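User: Predict the structure for this protein chain, please.
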Amino acid sequence: MDSRARRGIRGRAGVLLALAPLLAVAACEGVPWEAGHPVYDEKPSAQLAAAAKVTKEAGTARFTSSLVYGDGATRATDTTTGVMDFTRDTASGERALRIPDALPAKDARALGATGSGDDLDRDIDEARAVRTSSVYVPVRSGERTSWLRFSKGERKKFGLTHSDLARLNGAGAPYGGTLAETLRGAKPTVRPEKLKGGMRRYHVTVSRTRSLKVLPVALARTIRADGEKPKVTVTVDLNKKGELRRATADLTPLLAALHRADVLTDVSVLRADYRLTRLGKWQEERFPSGHSVQRSERVIVPRSSLKPGQCADTGLVPAKKKRVLKVDCADPHGVRAYAKVSVDETVTKVHGDDLLTVHKDDLIKDYGHAACVDRLAKAPKNVTEDVAEPATVSSVGKQSLQLTKAHGTVVHAKAGKALPHGTRLKVTGDFTCLVRTDQSRTTG
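Assistant: Here is the predicted structure, written as structure tokens:
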């Protein structure tokens, strides 16, 4: 060993001897030897992303997510409480929607009220559950409750890809539709305020696209169609561990777009709130399992498949898909099938006028619906006893219209031009007749 190497060893030994008393003091006073804080030692722009990771590492939490529309007599609230398991990517929640009578019917529907006309159910209580990419809806049958599973593929099949049901699949947390979704990608530009107990508070600005994730799909669609793109400020509180505890947002800037579309014009305030409690502690969760789960594609059927006397719930699938949840008529139901009708007739006059004087545009008539209305008047009392007043009849089927001359030659008429002399209209089709009932819904 040369002299230079010996001098290096003696130098390092001297440094260690100098540090020894300081290390000994730290050990005696119980000061831990640890790495930096997983959240607050990050640069400000990365702290909320780090907080999301730390929150998920807690494992479980209770949550409360709420929207408040307006104040005073027109104040409506939409609150969901439940539990989440970040490890298993599952969650369950119970929603309570309360809409005052003072809010106009069209606005009540935009917030989620159900029913037709002015006869709306403004107080809605429903449960939902989420596991990875599937959403579960409870269905009551007598004293028994089963759960319908809506996988990503099933939601696409039933036209629910962009629905309030689909938005419950969260990315920021297992249960979606909360302010946790708006915080994904949010980057603070300054260090947070320091609060009591080691808490930290951030104020971050999020885009319109992010802020819409907390609103019902109908409202979000209306705002998205507007040209202006206001940003929203979200206030975020973390605990001393860096876990998310609360987020609040004043969404009032989004109301301008709704007002321009004549929606919620009586509402001047819109706020959102999201809270997590009991992080990392045992939670009693209401989650479907085992025999209580059914695949939605097995029990949601085409309306045309209903037989006379069968009933269905209509609240789960968009009307344009013409599919319903078939249920027992002894349970709450939205529609009842009461007849199957076939139409096969030749029409030579419309509204009392000879077809020669009637344009093709005047021939657009739902002959199946007319036949169903006529059949309802002849239906037995046990079919009509729970029919909502005034009666709302719908027909499911496809009618075929063909214009011909007396000897059978097909007439190709153009809209806006009179039909040739002797023209006849041949109408054929098979239809299922349904009538709306005054029963409440089956799902909840």
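The chain has eleven helices and 22 strands.
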